[in-house]
Amino acid sequence: MTPEELHKIAETELEAKQKVGHTLCVCMAAGCVSTHADKVKESLEQQIEKHGLKETCKVKGVGCMGLCMAGPLVAVEQTGALYQMVTPQDAEEIVKNLGKPPVKRIECDTTQPFFMRQKKIVLENSGIVDPERIEEYVAAKGYEALLEALTSMHAAEVVEQVSKSGLRGRGGAGFPTGLKWGTVAKARGDRKFVICNGDEGDPGAFMDRSVLESDPHRVLEGMAIAGYAVGASQGYIYVRAEYPLAVKRLKDAIKQAERLGLLGHNIFGTTFSFNIEVRLGAGAFVCGEETALIASVEGKRGQPRPRPPFPAERGLWDCPTLINNVETFANIPPIIRNGGEWFAGIGTEKGKGTKVFALAGAVTNTGLIEVPMGISLREIIFEIGGGIPNGKKFKAVQTGGPSGGCIPEQFLDMPVDYDSLAKVGSIMGSGGMIVMDETSCMVDVAKFFMEFCMTESCGKCVPCRVGTKQMHELLSKITTGKATTDDLAMLEELCDVVKNTSLCGLGMTAPNPVVSTLRYFKDEYMAHIHDRRCPAGVCKIGKEQLATV
Amino acid sequence: MVMNLARPAMPSDDKRWKIVNATMRRHGYSHHSLIEALHTVQEIFGYLDEIALKFVAKSLRVPLSKVYGVATFYNFFTLKPQGEHTCVVCMGTACYIKGAPLILDAIEQIAKIKPGETTPDRKLSVISARCFGSCGLAPAVVFDGEVAAKVTPAVATEKIRRWLNP
C-alpha cells in the first residue's frame, strides 16, 4: 500500500457515492439488530428491487446512531431524514417517498436536543459508515492519521501531540494518555506490546461495544499509531465474548486491513510493522484491571498482581506494554489528523475532548451519546435524555458502575469531568450513566452493586474477598429490616478497610456505591433500620418483622 | 535435549475435535492459547466436560489443575451441558432497576429452577447475565440466542410455558 493507493481508494469510493441518488442507512448495531433491523434491511432491499430503483438507490448497514430506544433506525444519507421504530411493513412507504418529504408517521425529529447537543469525535463515523467495508472508512479520512504519523512524524512527535491534546484514559481512572505513551516509549525492551482493553464489564455500559461494532477500523488505526509511537509491533484487542457482533466485525476489519497492507509488514513502505490479534474475554469483571487483563491474555486466570512494576515497564510476558481503553484509541486518529491543540480546545481545563456515555435507566431517551467534557448532568439527563418518563421524579444518577457512586439532585448543575465527579464521591468510569427515579431504593442499589463486586472478586486478596461478602450480608440485613445501628457502624468501618487495603481497583472502589448512598441518602438507610420500611417500596420487609418492632 | 512433540490422540472419532485441534495449532500449541482453546470447545460442544479438559491440557502441556482453574474462574465457561432451550436474563444495572429481578422470580415460579440451573428433563436452562450492553432495551432477555427487548414477567412466563409444555 502506497499513499497514492490509499487516496485512490478514497477517491473511487467517493465517486461511487456520487452516483447513488439515495442511500438508506439501516442501523445494524446490536440494539437495533435485536429489534429486527436485519429484517427491515432485507425488506428495504426488496422494495428497491420491486420499484426498479436498483441503479440509483442503495441500502447499507451502518453502526449505532445513538437513539437505541427508538430502534430500528433508518436514515436517508442525502437528506438527513431519520425514521424510527421502522418495521418491515414500513419499507414500501419509505422507498416510495425517497426524493419527497419524509413519511411523517415514522419520522424522527433530528433537531431535538438529543441530536443537537452532542459533539461527535469518537462517534463521528458511527451511524454513517458501513463498519463491514474498509473502503468507506478510508473515504472518511480513515488511515490518513496513520499515514501522516508514519511518513512525516517521528515517534516522539506522535507522543508529543498526544500529550499536548490533554487526552486522559477513557477507561475510568483518567490517567494522562501522553504520559503513559511516553513511559512505554522510554521503557527498555526488545519487544513491546500494545493492548486495547475492550473488556467492558461494567453493568449498564455499552460504549466500547458500540464503538467496536460501528467503527472498528478507528480502533485499529489508533492502536497502530500507538504501536509506532511506543515501538511495538504486536497488538492485542481483548474483547468480551459476550459481544459476538463486535468480535466478528473486529476480526473482519483486521483481515481487510491486512489485505490492503494497512496492518502487517512495512506499512506504507516504511520499516514499521504492526499486527493485531483478537483475544476473547470469558466473563470476568476483574479482567478490566490491567494486570488481570494481561494474565488473561497470557491464558491464565485473570487475577491482578501488585503494582509497581506497572505494565508500562513489565506487562505482557514481562515486556513493556501499553494498555488503553477502546475509546482512548478511538480518539487518537483525529488528534493526529487535527493536532493536539485542536483537541485541547474542547472540554474543560482538566478534562479535554468529549466523552461517550451510555445513557440508560429511568430516562426517556436511552442510548449512546457523546458530549463535550464540562457539560452539566442536568443538560445530559433533562435535555439530551429528555427527562424522566411517566411523570416520575428524579432521584439519582449512577456513574462509573460498581466502582462509582450515586449523585443526587443537588449536584445536577455540576460540570461533568474527572475531578468534579470524584469530588462528589463518584467517578467518571468508562461511561455508564444510569438514571434512577423515585421508584428505586438506594439501599437496594448499593446491595445490587455489592453483590456484583462480591461475585466478581477474584479471591486473591482477603479484604476484597471477605470484605465484600460481609458488606453484602450487612446490606441484606438492612434491606430485610433486620439490621441495627451497630450494623450500620460496622458497614461504614468495613467500607474504610476494604477501600484502603485491597490489592486492585476492584476492591479499592467496591465500597463506593455504599459510601455515596450513605452520604446522600442516609435517611433511606435509617428508614430501613428504624422504621422497618422501604420508602421506595422495593425491599420486601416481611410482616413478621414489623410485628416484632 | 530431545523433546517428545507427539500430540495426544483425539478423544473420539468425532470430527469436531479437529476444529479444537485447528485452534490450538493456529496458536502453535502455546499454553497462552488455553482460553482460546476452551472457547472453541464450548462453542462447538456447548460445554466443557472432563474429556475435553484433559485433551486440551495434554495438547497444550498445561497441568489439568490449571486448565480446571481457568475453566472455573471465568463465568462464560460452563462444565455442565445446557438444556434444550436457554433463557438468559440480563441483570445489568439498567435492567435491574427496570424490573429484571421480577422476571427471574416469575421464571423461577413456573420452571422451578434458579439462575444457573437446568430443569431435570433438560428442557430449559436459566442463566442470569452480568450485562449484554443492550441497556437501551432494558429489561432484556435472550431466549435461545434472540434478544427480546422491554420484557415483562408475563411475556417471559408465556414463552417458557410454551417451551416446557409444547
Textual characterization of the structure:
The complex is a heterodimer of chains A (549) and B (166). Chain A is α/β, with parallel strands linked by helices. Chain A has helices at 3-19, 30-33, 37-50, 91-96, 113-116, 134-139, 144-152, 155-165, 177-186, 207-214, 216-230, 244-259, 290-297, 326-338, 340-344, 377-384, 418-423, 442-456, 462-479, 485-501, 505-509, 512-520, 522-530, 543-548; strands at 22-27, 57-62, 74-76, 82-83, 193-198, 234-239, 275-280, 321-325, 354-361, 367-372, 394-399, 405-408, 432-437. Chain A has 4 domains: 20-110, Glutaredoxin (3-Layer(aba) Sandwich), CATH 3.40.30.10; 141-344, 3-Layer(aba) Sandwich (Rossmann fold), CATH 3.40.50.11540; 354-437, Ubiquitin-like (UB roll) (Roll), CATH 3.10.20; 442-548, de novo design (two linked rop proteins). Chain A is built from 24 helices and 13 strands. Chain B has 2 domains: 16-73; 85-164, Glutaredoxin (3-Layer(aba) Sandwich). Chain B has a 5-stranded mixed beta sheet with strand order 2-3-1-4-5, with helices on one face. The termini of chain B are far apart. In chain B, helix 6 (100-111) packs parallel to helix 7. Chain B is elongated, with a radius of gyration of 19 Å. Chain B has 166 residues and is an alpha+beta fold. In chain B, a hairpin with a 2-residue loop joins strand 4 and strand 5. Helix content of chain B is 44%, strand content 12%. The longest helix of chain B has 12 residues, at 34-45. Classes of the chains: A alpha/beta (549), B alpha+beta (166). Chains A and B meet through helix 2, strand 9, strand 13 and helix 18 of A and helix 2, helix 4, helix 5 and strand 5 of B.
